[in-house]
Specification:
Layout lengths: L2 H14 L9 H41 L15
Amino acid sequence: MTPWDRKEDEVRRLLDGPHPVVPVGLAPRAAEQGRRLVARRRVLHLVLWVLLLAVLAAALVAAALWWPDPQPLQTTPLVYW
């Protein structure tokens, strides 16, 4: 008997045995917990997107304020007569 066959036989014996009793109300509690998890994840993603946009806006404002002003030319313009 190969190890694969032995493992398959063990799984079959486990599945053929008595099944454990499921607590009453397990499905509704699991569904509610899943809804809360999804809601938290949505809020977290929203907060992270808003934070990313705020950082991007701050970076654009800082770049606009720190951008060097063009200096006037030090030479006189050429005049053609």
